[in-house]
Amino acid sequence: MATMKNKSMGIDIGISELNRKKIAEGLCNLLADSYTLYLMTHNFHWNVKGPQFNTLHNMFMAQYSEQWIALDTIAERIRALGYPAPGTYGEFVKRATIKEIKGVPKAEEMIRHLVKAQEATAKTARKLFPVVAIANDQPTADVLTQRLDIHEKTAWMLRSLLED
């Protein structure tokens, strides 16, 4: 019986290696922002208090639950393009545009931080569209469109809590 050597197959999906690499890099940045946003939202869920406790506690839980699922979607797209997905705090800190919040802010400040973090994540996703369009990469465009829809809608809903 002949032994088979462990050879990896090349990827031939109609997107050049250079474009796959550029798209994967952008998705790695999106994953870092998304994970940082997830962590911030979960932290605020645990630590929110005040008159809006129940509303915010439940809202934050719905948001971080949705974000958790999105992390897998983004990471799996990176893998489908043939690149490793980052998965360490150190890697996320290097790539993320969202900065860690120190301490436990009051509920209204939590909302403000989350609006900014949602918008930052949307901007990270939007930056990737030109490369995705050139590469004719519809699956990544679909992921980006879905993420933009969620982040922009969530930012609007959070922002609405701050209006009179």
Automatic annotation (TrEMBL):
Ferritin/DPS domain residues: 27-164
Keywords: DNA-binding
UniProt cross-references to PROSITE patterns, sorted A to Z: DPS_2
Name of a matching Pfam family: Ferritin
GO MF, one example: oxidoreductase activity, acting on metal ions
Family of the protein in this entry: Belongs to the Dps family.
Protein name: Starvation-inducible DNA-binding protein
Organism for this UniProt entry: Polynucleobacter brandtiae
